């Protein structure tokens, strides 16, 4: 399976809705253009399609992946224990800075989701943006070899 970018969401206001977009612009040291959270340590948040699907099966739920409130959904690329690794999405690099811990809002989306996400980086990861550039759904994703 080829790793790829499955979805992009932009949160235009704190606690606001997650807007699904087909493409977005990344700015080094800032994050996604138009996203409410820019320039902080958590410039971009990421989740795995496979983990989300497993959690929904485990809990018997059908919450949309946007309920996680992450910016990017990947498939075919494990984020577990990826701290300090560099991830390429198309022509842009992201440095994974840590695990995104699930918050109480996860139980608002689906009862028991917060606890189910706790083990093994189930809540995904957060990253800093290293390169300016455009990304689009369907782009290849790969770990940097260096």
List keywords for this structure.
8-stranded mixed sheet; 146 residues; 36% strand; 3-stranded antiparallel sheet
Structure report:
The longest helix has 11 residues, at 49-59. The chain has helices at 49-59, 105-109, 113-117, and strands spanning 4-11, 18-21, 23-27, 31-32, 44-48, 72-75, 86-89, 92-99, 125-129, 133-136, 141-143. The chain starts with a strand and ends with a strand. It has 3 helices and 11 strands. It is of the alpha+beta class and 146 residues long. An 8-stranded mixed sheet has the order 2-1-6-5-9-8-7-11. Strands 4-3-10 form a 3-stranded antiparallel sheet, with no helix packed on it.
Provide a short characterization of the protein structure.
The protein is α+β, with helices and mostly antiparallel strands and 146 residues long. Helices cover 14% and strands 36% of the residues.
């Amino acid at each position: 399976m080829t790793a790829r970018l499955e979805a992009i969401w932009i949160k235009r206001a704190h606690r606001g809705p997650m807007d699904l977009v087909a493409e977005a612009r990344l700015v080094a040291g800032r994050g996604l253009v138009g996203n409410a959270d820019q320039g902080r340590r958590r410039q971009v948040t990421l989740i795995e399609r496979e983990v989300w699907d497993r959690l929904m099966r485990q809990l018997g739920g059908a919450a949309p992946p946007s309920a996680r409130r992450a910016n990017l959904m990947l498939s075919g690329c494990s984020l577990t224990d990826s701290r300090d690794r560099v991830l390429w999405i198309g022509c842009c690099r992201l440095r994974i800075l840590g695990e995104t811990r699930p918050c109480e809002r996860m139980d608002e989306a689906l009862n028991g989701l917060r606890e189910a996400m706790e083990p093994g980086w189930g809540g995904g990861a957060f990253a800093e943006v290293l390169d300016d550039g455009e990304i689009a759904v369907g782009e290849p994703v790969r770990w940097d070899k260096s």
